[in-house]
Amino acid sequence: MSAYVVSRPVWRRFRPRFLSRAAAHVRAGGHAAIVLPDERVDLLLSIGEDGKLTELGLWSLLSIEQQRFRRVGEGPAKGLATARVKRQYEGSVLDWCERDSTHPGAIREVALDCLSCGACCHDANVLLDEVDLARFRDAGRGDLTGRAYVRRARDGKITLRFAASGRCQHLCEDRRCAIYEIRPDNCRAFVVGSEACLSAREETLGIRDGAPAEP
Ligand code: SF4
Ligand code: SF4
């Protein structure tokens, strides 16, 4: 089975007096947590030429339920993105720094094999929309739009109905997706190597990080 080789950012924590080092780490591809004197935590992430966060940077923010960031206007971190971490996620960010403390450099290459993993297909909140439901019907799988497979909340949200074990009903024993060709857009959008991916692997498989990629 082939594995994806993902270049993912390495997390480091810095005190504000080492902001220049933090900025250099981010410009080299890493992510930085700036631990302020009051122990609040600011993130420092890179921004592409298009003014957007990198895909993995965006997923790091989404993993801590944030979407907003601002561009630093002056000082050593000028031009980088920063965001204050919500208190309830400070521990998660510092844990990412602890996890990565043994990895040198700003970028870590890991080999992740989705076909032998399936961790993100457990305990997930997979939102469905009309496009997904139409895709099921067009493929002759109208049954997938029924109560056995989808949950319709009072607020109108439609989600995949997972098994009581927390496992997606479409996840096969060999960890393949049984409806891979017509899987929901939410599943397609999930990014391998993102913090959400690494968290799912840790929670479901007990694997703290991906295996290093073969040289
Ligand atoms: S958790 Fe990550 S490696 Fe595992 S199947 Fe999902 S995207 Fe792939
Ligand atoms: S539909 Fe497929 S890809 Fe999506 S959660 Fe279920 S098994 Fe995973």
Q: Tags for this entry?
A:
single chain; 5-stranded mixed sheet; 215 residues; 6 helices; 3-stranded antiparallel sheet; binds iron/sulfur cluster; alpha+beta
Word description of this protein:
With 215 residues, this protein is α+β, with helices and mostly antiparallel strands. It is 27% helix and 20% strand. A hairpin with a 5-residue loop joins strand 9 (150-152) and strand 10. The site of one iron/sulfur cluster has 11 residues, from loops. It holds the Pfam family CxxCxxCC. This is YkgJ family cysteine cluster protein.
What are the SSEs and their pairings?
Elements: E1 4-9, E2 11-14, H1 19-27, E3 31-35, E4 41-45, H2 55-63, E5 70-71, E6 81-84, H3 87-100, E7 107-112, E8 127-128, H4 130-138, E9 150-152, E10 158-160, H5 185-189, H6 195-205, E11 211-212
This protein binds iron/sulfur cluster (2 copies).
A few lines on this structure:
InterPro entries: Puta_zinc/iron-chelating_dom. By secondary structure, the protein is an alpha+beta fold.
Class by helix and strand content? alpha+beta
Strand content: 15-25%
In round numbers, the mean pLDDT is: 93
User: Helical segment tally?
Assistant: 6
Strand order of the largest sheet: 2-3-4-6-5
Total number of strands: 11
Shape annotation: elongated
Number of domains: 2
In whole angstroms, the N-to-C terminal distance is 18 Å
Low-confidence stretches: none
Protein name: YkgJ family cysteine cluster protein
Pfam families: CxxCxxCC
Organism: Sorangium cellulosum (strain So ce56)
InterPro entries: Puta_zinc/iron-chelating_dom (IPR005358)
